[in-house]
């Protein structure tokens, strides 16, 4: 006797007898696309102007920052309006270690990640217990406070006060015949790719399921043995660490950190990037990063007088056309393709 | 389905549990036991305290007095999320699924307490632990999806499925952690006659295959009396009967409670 159906079970076409073969084919296609994308990105290092390369480097960093925010907000349902604070924490950690201690750039990265992760944990630990709006406000206040904290007299010797700190791009290794900005672009790309892989690993397994389960139904999640407070604070710390690492990448890209680069506007911009890319989507973060770097430029090229208004209109139009963000349209396209070759 | 004779120390002991909401006494010192591999019915008219008692066992409600013990462990000291790992699984009256997850992912989420890998292990995936845990969870899910005839909808988002199917997903999810005690909150709610009959057979099958006990909170008198080994009846927060289904059904206090509440519409109470 097979399991008795209670209620009607509607069969969905996809699960045919050759499902494993189809999934293998699917994986092969995804892998090929990934390789092609990587090839294009690497080739860009030698084809684009230094300025475009700089923009792409920046976008890669922002994509990681949005990824960090997306873990917290998209996957775990916790609204953070202050991820710019973690970006600043990472940027300053790297800048201080490089200018005051002469650390090489790569060595500052783990410290930047840990420092911003710890800050995230410290903020998230009390705030997450209070829930939704309180967390949003707590993170928002943090973002408001950060530029002022960075300017404060007591730490001026370290942070450079209002002036900020200048840092130099790492030199490419002597045996490689490339420029410093090409080298930085390629390293940023490699580091971002590694972080994206780690985030994808995180969300596709046990922990990612717990993050989404808690977002969807906390009471049921707890009944399934998930420790709400632990998962939420750790997610927040992980998201803050990713965004902090992004800050470190961004700091060397612009070769400069100053308090006024990290205002509340940065946090809001990251939030916009996340929504545009699509909440709870890994790939969407890439689109979000590209959006927040290139669309303001585009707006300015349309109207020098009111780029803000143009940006706003573009944003609204985009969300009107793509309510689920870029990830939404991506999922739709994939589903369509499937049905075409898999179903019937 | 005779009551198992003299079970060794019971799986669940509810002892003098008192719950008050403001001035209202929801439970006035209720005691009963659930034995190993027993299907235990918990009945009572609306507002009798069934759901409150249910919530005390799963931890959503804290007794003002009394204690609940699971395999001898006092549950008042066990945080809510740790109860699944002890072996207590549950379903929800109106279903409480993870709406954006697929059916399969919901069941996998139910297997959460069986694994232990954390954030770093999952992100880095060094060594084989995460992969092994995932494989085991996938295998558990596959078995449960087959048992509950959910294979055809395994990869559909759960939010779009009909209610009856969602109830089966909840059952699969609750079974995924391999509970010793399954708390079912009105599993027959919203099901038609045929479906209720199938549910009864399914409960027997689950008990046999998973070697677990079931505490069944249910309005549907016929289901309760046909599957339960023993039934406990509550009214106004007090236990009014405890025994075999036949004995409880014949108890004058039970008949009075049901007829008095107009719940005789079920037709089975009297």
From TrEMBL, chain A:
It is a multi-pass membrane protein. It comes from Caldovatus sediminis. It is found in: Cell membrane. GO terms for molecular function: branched-chain amino acid transmembrane transporter activity. Pfam families: BPD_transp_2. Keywords: Cell membrane, Membrane, Transmembrane, Transmembrane helix. This is Branched-chain amino acid ABC transporter permease. GO terms for cellular component: plasma membrane.
Automatic annotation (TrEMBL), chain B:
GO terms for molecular function: ATP binding; ATP hydrolysis activity. SMART domains: AAA. Keywords: ATP-binding, Nucleotide-binding, Transport. Gene3D superfamilies: P-loop containing nucleotide triphosphate hydrolases. The keyword Nucleotide-binding applies. Pfam families: ABC_tran (PF00005), BCA_ABC_TP_C (PF12399). InterPro entries: AAA+_ATPase (IPR003593), ABC_AA/LPS_Transport (IPR051120), ABC_transporter-like_ATP-bd (IPR003439), BCA_ABC_TP_C (IPR032823), P-loop_NTPase (IPR027417). GO terms for cellular component: plasma membrane. Residues 12-261 form the ABC transporter domain. This is ABC transporter ATP-binding protein. It comes from Caldovatus sediminis.
């Amino acid at each position: 006797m097979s399991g008795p159906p209670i209620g009607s079970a509607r069969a969905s076409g996809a699960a045919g007898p050759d499902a494993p073969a189809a999934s293998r084919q699917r994986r092969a296609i995804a892998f090929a696309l990934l390789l092609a994308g990587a090839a294009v990105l690497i080739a860009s290092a030698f084809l684009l102007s230094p300025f475009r390369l700089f923009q792409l480097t920046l976008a890669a960093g922002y994509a990681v920052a949005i990824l960090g925010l997306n873990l917290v907000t998209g996957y775990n349902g916790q609204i953070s309006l202050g991820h710019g604070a973690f970006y600043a924490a990472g940027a300053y950690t790297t800048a201080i270690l490089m200018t005051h201690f002469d650390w090489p750039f790569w060595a500052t990265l783990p410290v930047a990640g840990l420092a911003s992760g710890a800050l995230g944990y410290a903020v998230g630990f009390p705030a997450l217990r209070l829930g939704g709006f309180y967390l949003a406000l707590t993170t928002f206040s943090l973002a408001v406070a950060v530029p002022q904290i960075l300017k404060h007299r007591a730490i001026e010797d370290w942070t450079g006060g209002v002036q900020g700190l200048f840092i130099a791009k790492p030199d490419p290794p002597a045996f490689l015949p490339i420029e410093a900005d090409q080298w930085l672009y390629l390293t940023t790309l490699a580091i971002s790719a590694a972080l994206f892989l780690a985030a994808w690993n995180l969300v596709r397994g046990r922990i990612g399921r717990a993050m989404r389960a808690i977002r969807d139904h906390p009471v049921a999640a707890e009944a399934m043995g998930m420790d709400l407070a632990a998962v939420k604070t750790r997610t927040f710390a992980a998201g803050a660490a990713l965004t902090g690492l992004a800050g470190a990448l961004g700091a060397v890209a612009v070769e400069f950190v100053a308090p006024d680069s990290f205002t509340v506007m940065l946090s809001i911009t990251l939030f916009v990037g996340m929504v545009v890319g699509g909440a709870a989507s890994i790939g969407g973060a890439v689109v979000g990063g590209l959006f927040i770097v290139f669309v303001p430029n585009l707006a300015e090229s349309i109207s020098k007088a009111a780029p803000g208004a143009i940006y706003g209109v573009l944003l609204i139009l985009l969300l009107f056309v793509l309510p689920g963000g870029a990830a939404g349209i991506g999922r739709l396209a994939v589903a369509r393709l499937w049905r075409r070759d898999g179903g019937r | 389905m005779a009551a198992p004779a003299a079970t060794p120390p019971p799986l669940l002991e509810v002892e003098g549990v008192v719950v008050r909401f403001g001035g209202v006494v929801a439970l006035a010192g209720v005691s009963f036991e659930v034995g190993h591999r027993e299907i235990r019915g918990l009945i009572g008219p609306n507002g009798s305290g069934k759901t409150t008692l249910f919530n005390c066992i799963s931890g959503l409600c804290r007794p003002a007095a009394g204690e609940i013990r699971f395999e001898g462990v006092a549950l008042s000291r066990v945080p809510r999320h740790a109860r699944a790992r002890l072996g207590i699984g549950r379903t929800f009256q109106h279903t409480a699924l993870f709406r954006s997850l697929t059916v399969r992912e919901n069941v996998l989420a139910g297997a959460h307490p069986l694994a232990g890998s954390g954030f770093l292990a999952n992100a880095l995936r060094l060594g084989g632990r995460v992969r092994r845990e995932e494989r085991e969870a996938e295998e558990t899910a596959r078995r449960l999806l087959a048992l509950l005839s959910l294979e055809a909808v395994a990869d559909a988002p759960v939010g779009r499925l009909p209610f009856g199917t969602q109830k089966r997903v909840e059952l699969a999810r609750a079974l995924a952690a391999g509970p010793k005690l399954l708390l079912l909150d009105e599993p027959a709610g919203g099901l038609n006659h045929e479906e209720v009959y199938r549910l009864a057979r399914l409960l027997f099958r689950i008990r046999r295959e998973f070697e677990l006990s079931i505490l069944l909170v249910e309005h549907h008198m016929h289901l309760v009396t046909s599957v339960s080994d023993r039934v406990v009846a509550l009214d106004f927060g007090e236990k009014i009967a405890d025994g075999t289904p036949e004995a409880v059904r014949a108890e004058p206090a039970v008949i009075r409670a049901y007829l008095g509440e107009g719940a005789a519409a079920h037709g089975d109470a009297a």
